[in-house]
Amino acid sequence: MFFGLNFNEALVKNFEIMNNYMDQMWEAWFLALGSFSWTQAQYENMAKNFIEFGRTNRDESMKMLEETTRQFRTNQTQMQRMIEEAVASNYQSTNLSFESDVDRLAQKIDELSRKLDKNILEQK
Question: Where are the domains of the chain?
């Protein structure tokens, strides 16, 4: 028995946790790629508009380019923050599970060591 679970059950539980973590990581990556794709499409549309409206005032065009660049950076920062939060959340929940297992294992080892020391002393 391993903390109320046999070894196979504990192993299956750990694999389920890791599988869930990997699924969420893939979702975060797909979300990031989707955001980058959308941003690229917006940038391409802006470039096409810039070419089509080549007669427009240079200052207005520069403002549009600066705004698109600023929006791209904002989207990129938001996406990075979302990915970091998802990874941190998954890591924290996984890490807490493993930490509690390790703590319980350490307590059990201490308990068994005391019993072993007691039995050795009684046999002398």
Answer: 7-123
